[in-house]
Design goal:
With 111 residues, the protein is an all-alpha fold. The chain is built from five helices and no strands. It has two domains: 73 residues; 36 residues. Helix content is 73%, strand content 0%. The chain is elongated, with a radius of gyration of 23 Å.
Length: 111
């Protein structure tokens, strides 16, 4: 049952997931233990999906940042964007925010 789940490329990087699936295979004969274990395995699968999604997002973000650096475009960090939002909320002009944060007017307007 679980061995097909382990064939996913990201599953191979997770020793705890591999151990969980192996334990599931061992418990397949005991229905009561199996139900409990499947509930736990569902939690592990949700966590694995969350980790896979975070990994993919981080990878794409890194590629974008690398491309931006290569082309000389500075990608604003979260703190700079947050500061720009606070300045705008306080009533500062877009030009003032651009001058202080070094963000482009287009970037500020997209916030």
């Amino acid at each position: 049952m679980g061995s097909d789940f382990l064939s996913a490329p990201w599953a191979k990087r997770s020793p705890s997931l591999r151990k969980a699936v192996e334990e599931l295979d061992r418990l397949e004969g005991d229905e009561s233990k199996l139900e409990l274990y499947e509930a736990k395995l569902d939690e592990v699968r949700v966590m694995a999906t969350m980790l896979e999604t975070a990994y993919d997002l981080g990878f794409r973000q890194g590629v974008e940042d690398g491309q931006a650096q290569k082309s000389g475009i500075r990608r604003p960090d979260a703190a700079t964007r947050a500061m720009a939002r606070r300045m705008l909320a306080k009533g500062d002009s877009v030009d003032d925010v651009a001058r202080v944060t070094k963000l482009s007017v287009e970037t500020i307007e997209s916030l």
